[in-house]
């Protein structure tokens, strides 16, 4: 029997053995250079959202502007628009459940889980940092600052497009769903008041459609910024939403 | 008048037999969505209750509500309801004219103080002290307020009285104002439509006269029994919608086959009315059945929702015609373009930085 316990190795000998580690690398390895930011429920919520929002946008667009007419079978046996609408409603319900789950997690999760629900608008320093980040995006400063959670610009975008944007889409979406569910139904009891208040269902539809386009614009910016930050900023972005760990590329302050 | 007649007495005077009267009660019960148990209740109420007078005033309107009303599908229902209404004052139907007509209105108000129903067709314009609509030498808004003061309840006939309709469409030069924004201290029932369906009108008025109360209203103050569902929910072309079979052009084969008119801008999915169930002209047809989409005439501000042939509302932003899709797609395209440029500049900057490092 060979002893599987390794002999006492020198520090980082394992990495040295692979043959590629430089002395500089080993210096970095000595430090803990990552923070656990996104806990599992937050990550699951993010990817579920990514999926259902994609479904919602595609099906939502097709509900407003349907596919060309198809002649697959008699209308009785053909359900193209029906399936599209079903996918939209099902995804909307998952989105709603997920959002409430996310609110719950803001209370029981770590401090990073609360960030997107509030915006520190009364803090002058936050505004300064927001403009600093904006200048980084306008190529006016050489280097961005380090952030554990969202940077101020991402924070603002999250708050307006996700926290408020998704709320708006859920509220208008459920009010529209209540129309089909009928008066006295649960969705109608919960959200039917909105149509009564707005007055015309067509305006409600239009508002929901504007919301869709704002989400599309957010997704474009979000994906671009996440990739760009991953490459050009001083911390990880894309992998953070997979592992939950934010790793940092340097140990300089700010 | 010493003794106000009951509905039943009025009907018998009109030569309606007891048998026809009972038929009418059954018809009314089913029209109102009530069970058979309500038939004797309606009969009893009509035999014992003194009839409720109705005053019918007209503001800015086109008389399509009156025209619809007198074309009630069931002749008996029409006759009966018309005989119930005090026709002392209704511009279209009254016999008298001029001072005699105004005196008749005044007499009815005095005689049935607090006991009559005020039916309003059209609406009052408020600009220039209401001078855009003069009735009997005075602004209509004054007549409306005067008649409403002692009314038991108010019926807002049609889109005009309920929401304002075409005269209140943007920019609304006369400031035509729906009744509920002028009279705020009376129960008001809205019966929108341009015009409302005759059976809906007679149904509402019969309910109010029979049960002495407003029918159940929805959140917008419309009778829930007629405005509880969308045209789309009960449309006979709905299976084609669910199948994804649409009319693509007015003259295509799909139009001939009677496919869904959604893509032609049909407002059925956003319009609450009874057209697809009650239909028009004695149940003969309704717009969608005759091959044209619904224009949403019973919805608030239907003139201001863009084209009758577009699903997505047009917006007049800075004088440019656009809708949610054009605007959204334009914005998304602009953002996409900006991202591409930004990414290119970012890559260049990064390359420059590396170069500096190497050289430095």
Automatic annotation (TrEMBL), chain A:
Alphabetical UniProt keywords: Cell membrane, Electron transport, Heme, Iron, Membrane, Metal-binding, Transmembrane, Transmembrane helix, Transport
Cross-referenced Gene3D superfamilies: Transmembrane di-heme cytochromes, Chain C
GO molecular function: electron transfer activity; heme binding; iron ion binding
Stretches that traverse the bilayer: 44-63, 83-105, 153-177, 210-227
Keyword NADP: no
Database matches in InterPro entries: Cyt_b561_bac/Ni-Hgenase (IPR011577), Di-haem_cyt_TM (IPR016174), Hydrogenase_cytochrome (IPR051542), Ni-dep_Hydgase_cyt-B (IPR000516)
GO BP field: respiratory electron transport chain
Keyword Iron: yes
Major place of residence: membrane
Membrane topology label: Multi-pass membrane protein
Cytochrome b561 bacterial/Ni-hydrogenase domain segment(s): 37-244
One Pfam family matching this protein: Ni_hydr_CYTB
Localization terms from the record: Cell membrane
GO cellular component, one term: plasma membrane
Annotated SUPFAM superfamilies: Transmembrane di-heme cytochromes
Family to which this protein belongs: Belongs to the HupC/HyaC/HydC family.
Record-linked PANTHER family: NI/FE-HYDROGENASE 1 B-TYPE CYTOCHROME SUBUNIT, NI_FE-HYDROGENASE 1 B-TYPE CYTOCHROME SUBUNIT-RELATED
Protein name: Probable Ni/Fe-hydrogenase B-type cytochrome subunit
Species of the source: Fuscovulum blasticum DSM 2131
UniProtKB/TrEMBL annotation, chain B:
Annotated binding of [4Fe-4S] cluster 2, by residue: 232, 235, 260, 266
GO biological process terms held by the UniProt record: anaerobic respiration
Main location: membrane
Domain of life the protein comes from: Bacteria
Catalytic activity entry: H2 + A = AH2
CC annotations in GO: [Ni-Fe] hydrogenase complex; ferredoxin hydrogenase complex; plasma membrane
Residue intervals of the NADH:ubiquinone oxidoreductase-like 20kDa subunit domain: 62-207
Family of the protein in this entry: Belongs to the [NiFe]/[NiFeSe] hydrogenase small subunit family.
Name under which the protein is recorded: Uptake hydrogenase small subunit
